[in-house]
Amino acid sequence: MNWSLKRWDFYSGFYDDLFSFERQRGRSIEIAALKPGERILISGCGTGLDLHLIPEGVEIDAVDLSPGMLDKARQKKRAARCQVMNAQQLEFQDAAFDAVVLHLIVAIVPDPLACLREAARVLKPGGRVMIFDKYFHGPGQPRLIRRLLNPLARWIATDLNTRTLELAAQVGLHVVHEESAMLNGMFRIARLERRTPAPGAAA
Ligand SMILES: C[S@@+](CC[C@H](N)C(=O)[O-])C[C@H]1O[C@@H](n2cnc3c(N)ncnc32)[C@H](O)[C@@H]1O
User: Fold this and answer.
1) Domains of the chain
2) Residue 124: is it exposed, middle or buried by C-beta count within 10 angstroms (0-12/13-18/19+)?
3) Cα-trace Rg, the chain
4) C-beta of 70 in contact with ligand 1 (< 6 A)
5) Which residues are CB-neighbours of 165 under 8 A, at least 6 positions away?
6) Distance, CA 175 to ligand 1 centroid (Å)?
7) Ligand 1 center to 108 CA (angstroms)
8) Between residues 3 and 84, which one has the greater pLDDT?
9) Overall average pLDDT of the 52-69 stretch
10) Which residues contact residue 123 at a Cβ distance below 8 angstroms, ignoring those fewer than 6 apart?
11) Is the CB of 116 under 6 A from ligand 1?
12) Neighbouring residues of 155: CB distance < 8 A, sequence distance ≥ 6
């Protein structure tokens, strides 16, 4: 197993102490406006830090590639079906979910477009995707400091300059709400909706 996968099992031991981001996660879930009876997917769920924020009566599937992270998610009080699965190649049927939560995952995976395409595919038409992440937001190029820090950030965990919203548009996910979440807008929250059939998905 290479470092890019192994690191998450290693990080699982202290992840919750460093990355709770309770307020930002709560804000994203609030914007999602989840309702009892809906079914959601948390893709790249990590240790399950979002689970307790999901309203009762919402059915949760949670997937992650790291068995270590998933073990922690299974210990959380809120019930969810937790499975080892690749967010870039989901094993769910088309149009299975009312919402997909993508918190701190799109900038992590080697192929962010595939991750977004799969989220769109498993989403019902009109369904929503919640993103809480760092991504490059704006015209032109990221600032020099972001470009210089990016190789180190990628080695540790994450790309700082993924053009997440542009990639999302390519798979039929349209931004309906977008806001700064923290660190002067480096971390952002976006609600996207699937208004058109996703590529490869049933209409
Ligand atoms: C920064 S953590 C975010 C975890 C969680 N979403 C959160 O908000 O705390 C990134 C997670 O993505 C998982 N991951 C990395 N590549 C993945 C992939 N291809 N498919 C599914 N999960 C993946 C890692 O194991 C890790 O748990």
Assistant:
1) 3-194 (3.40.50.150)
2) middle
3) 16
4) no
5) 135, 137, 175, 178, 190, 192
6) 22
7) 7
8) 84
9) 97
10) 95, 97, 98, 99, 100, 129, 194, 198, 201
11) no
12) none
Ligand 1 pocket check: which of 64, 100, 104, 133 to mutate, most ligand atoms within 8 Å of Cβ? 64
pLDDT band at 199 (very low <50, low <70, confident <90, very high): low
Beta bridge partners of 50: none
Q: Is the CB of 104 under 6 A from ligand 1?
A: yes
Residues, the chain: 203
Q: What is the DSSP letter of 19?
A: -
CB contact at 8 A, 201 and 174:
no
**Residue position matching structure tokens 């399950």:** 48
